[in-house]
Specification:
globular; 8-stranded mixed sheet; alpha+beta; about 30% strand; about 180 residues; 8 strands
């Protein structure tokens, strides 16, 4: 059975390792910034299966908005249906909140376009919907916002970025129209 739990100190080191291997440098926040935001607008969660660590979730929180910022299943356990179960548990954990996540925009000439398309297909099959919101992050990565139910507005998204990244860094996000 899949559970999503607040990460304890023992799990944080595993989460940090998975975080560094699962996400490209251009998409990662400095870990120090994540730790500084814990208890405020950021939460770090462990994905557990029968008491064993299977992955990570890092969320940005803002009022009734939960932005699933980072989600990764340990490579050894991918392709076994855990991701689908995690998304079900995620929806249950945040019932009554607006739940969003970002994906890299698929582009034909992107070196990882097959992965981008696969990831998008996975999320769409698991109940997320395209919102029409997209932006370029400060590192130049094009990201599209997906939502489970009620999407957030661009202004709400930017408010969440300001709370998470700070005003100076959030000002570097460029909306794609």
């Amino acid at each position: 059975m899949i559970e999503i739990k607040e990460a304890n100190k023992k799990q944080i080191s595993r989460i940090r390792r998975l975080y560094k291997t699962a996400f490209p440098v251009a998409e990662r926040k400095q870990w120090v910034k994540i730790e500084k935001q814990l208890g405020g607008c950021t939460e770090v969660l462990s994905i557990m299966e029968d008491g064993k660590f299977r992955g990570l979730i890092i969320n940005m929180l803002n009022d009734d908005i939960v932005l699933l910022d980072y989600f990764a299943v340990d490579e050894k356990y991918r392709g076994k249906g855990i991701g689908t179960e995690v998304l079900k548990a995620f929806r249950e954990r945040y019932k009554g909140k607006r739940m969003e996540l970002e994906i890299e925009v698929p582009e034909e000439n992107a070196p990882n376009n097959a992965q981008r398309l696969s990831r998008k297909g996975f999320y769409l099959r698991n109940g997320l919907k395209e919102t029409g919101l997209a932006h370029i992050n400060p590192d130049g990565v094009k990201l599209a916002l997906l939502a489970f139910d009620e999407p957030i507005t661009h202004d709400e998204y930017m408010d969440t970025m300001r709370k998470s990244y700070g005003k100076k860094m959030a000002a570097k996000f460029i909306e794609i129209k």
